[in-house]
TrEMBL record:
Its cofactor is Fe cation. Residues 193-293 form the Pirin C-terminal domain. Fe cation binds at H78, H80, H122, E124. Belongs to the pirin family. SUPFAM superfamilies: RmlC-like cupins (SSF51182). Residues 1-21, 298-321 are annotated as: Disordered. It comes from the Bacteria. InterPro entries: Pirin, Pirin_C_dom, Pirin_N_dom, RmlC-like_jellyroll, RmlC_Cupin_sf. This is Pirin family protein. Keywords: Iron, Metal-binding. Residues 45-141 form the Pirin N-terminal domain. GO terms for molecular function: metal ion binding. It comes from Actinacidiphila oryziradicis. Binds 1 Fe cation per subunit.
């Protein structure tokens, strides 16, 4: 997945200083951002007032979109550095290609996990013959300093562990939830889970008090700790919770995102995460010159050019504006 803004805003995030040490309610609404030629996403992170949730640093939600007579998602080859990408679908398919030679169709409720490490490039597209509906989320996870130069890798996991409670099915996408551990490689204490709630559900989900959390509403309307959260919005919950009340009058779908607050301060610009302006400048130069990030073979079209850097140096800072 890519940040396709032609003039991306430098995002400075990380650090524990602004993480609430107690439960809070911050309802975040997404801004509409075009992704390729025919897909519009709701960008929930980074947000005006909230930059990260644990190591989760970028969240796009899209659909459900009718693409029966459309090309669907078409994102040309682009680079990544210092992060992991998570592809998660409720409907449709995404064909992933990368500079390692990976070629994988990711389908609903399967995990597509790409670790960029020091450098990788990839493309994402709806297959030529595709389902009529596209609905999902694209997310990034920041890599800690000790792992951000690791070798790039791609994982596809069609089978994921599930936690069940009355009216609730929780699929563990990344990290751990209630003792169930995802097979996806994680570099920080983290959790990502898909929550399917049946009509009439009134349940409490166990949480880790040391984690901070947010809940993204994928479909339907749900009360999260008594707060109505509607389709396409996200409720930031802070930390200090050992359980989370969930109530749904109709069937609904959520994503639970959480993790240990990310201690390091980061610089995020375009599709790169670094620790300094120099990190970002070098990555942009390498992509523009065709080095370091490899080549994606098989995509029908050219690759994305890097935007111009802003005129002032990028500096890391805390987690909220």
């Amino acid at each position: 997945m890519s940040n396709l803004d032609s003039k991306p805003i430098p995002t400075r995030c990380g650090g524990r200083g602004d993480v609430p040490g107690e439960p809070v309610h911050e309802l975040l609404t997404g801004r509409l951002v075009p992704l390729g030629d025919s897909t519009v996403v709701r960008r929930l992170l980074p947000n005006l007032g909230r930059r990260m949730v644990g190591a989760w640093c970028f969240v796009d939600h899209y659909g459900p979109d009718d693409i029966a007579d459309e090309p669907g998602m078409q994102v040309a080859p682009h680079p990544h550095m210092g992060l992991q990408t998570v592809s998660w679908l409720h409907a449709g398919e995404v064909l992933h290609r990368d500079s390692l030679g990976s070629l994988q169709t990711v389908r609903p409720f399967e995990l597509g996990l790409m670790t960029s490490g020091r450098a990788i490039s990839h493309s994402e597209e709806s297959p030529r013959e595709h389902a009529p509906t596209l609905h999902g989320a694209q997310l990034w996870v920041a890599l800690p300093d000790g792992d951000r130069h690791t070798a790039p890798a791609f994982e596809h996991h069609a089978e994921l562990p599930v936690v069940n409670a009355p009216g609730l099915t929780a699929t563990v996408i990344l990290g751990e939830l209630d003792g169930a551990v995802s097979p996806g490689t994680a570099y920080t204490p983290i959790v990502g889970a898909d929550l399917a709630l049946a009509a009439g559900t009134d349940v409490r989900l166990p949480l880790e008090p040391d984690f901070e959390y947010a809940v993204l509403a994928m479909s339907g309307a749900t009360e999260v700790d008594g707060v109505p959260v509607e389709h396409g919005s996200m409720l930031y919950l802070g930390s200090g919770r050992d359980e989370l009340p969930l109530r749904a009058e109709t069937g609904s779908g959520l994503m639970l995102l959480g993790g240990e607050p990310f201690a390091e301060e980061l610089v995020m610009w375009w599709n790169f995460i670094g620790r300094s302006h120099q990190d970002i400048e070098e990555a942009r130069k390498d992509w523009s010159e065709g080095s370091r990030f490899g080549e994606v073979h098989g995509y029908d079209g050219g690759r994305l050019p890097a935007p111009e850097l802003p005129p002032v140096p990028l500096k890391p800072r805390g987690r909220v504006r």
